[in-house]
C-alpha cells in the first residue's frame, strides 16, 4: 500500500462478504495491525503465513488498532493480543456491546438483543426464524470478546513508529467506530465506515442507538472535511478518493430517505418491514421478498434507521404499537 504498509485479505465464514482486509504497519517497535480479522483457524493460519512472508510473526505484533467491535474485526485481535501480549485498542462507545456479549455468553440474557429490534421493525416472523436458528454454538466465547487494553475516547493521535496517525471517531455503523488517517502517506484506514463498492449496514448494532443513520451521515461529513485520501477499506478494493466516495454515499442515503418518505405517503402509516418491501436491495435492486432470512432482517433494521432519521428531521412521526413502531409521513 505504501512503504512499510501491507494489506492482508483474510477469509470470512459467510457468503455475503468473502474477506476482511487487515493492514500491517511496520514500525521501529514492531508491527501495528489495523483490525485483526475473525478468530477462525483458516484466517489465523493465513495471517501467520503472510506475516512470515515479510520476515515477521505474531510475536512482532505490538498493537491492534481495531476500527469497531464486530467479530470480523475484533475477535482475532483480542485472541492474539491475549496470547502474545499485544495491546488492543478499541473505541470506548463499544463497551456496552462487549458487556452485553459477555452477558449472553454467561447465559444472563435469554435471547439475542436483535430480536427485539426486529419486532420493533415489524418483522416478528424474521425474529422468530432468527431465534429458531440459534444454537449453543452461536453463544459468544468470552475469550473472543475480552475488553481491550486501551479505550479510544474522542479524536486523538496515535504514534505508530515514525507515523502520526489520526484516530477519528466515526459513529454510525457502530457507536464506537473509528477510522485512522495517515495524512503523511495520504491514506485512510476506513474500516466499514467508507467502503468503495457497498454501503455499510446501519442499525445492525446493540444496544439500540436512537439515530444511527444520523450519526453515520454526520461522520461521513466529518471524514469529508479531512484531506482527500486513498481509501484502504476493510472490505473490497483500495479506492483512490475518500471525497468522491463520501459524496456518493451521502447522495445514496438521501435517495433512500426520499424513497422511504414516498412509501409512507403512498401507503399511509407503516412499520419498517413494510417500507423495506418498497425498496430495492443490493446493487441488483432485489426485492425484499427475495432476500434470504439474514438479509431480510438487515434490510428491516436499516429501513428502520432511515425512518428514524425522517422522524428526527420532522418529516415523519412514530408510534409504538403491538405490531411494532408505526411511522407516518407528516
From TrEMBL:
SMART domains: Lactamase_B. Residues 19-235 form the Metallo-beta-lactamase domain. Pfam families: Lactamase_B. This is MBL fold metallo-hydrolase.
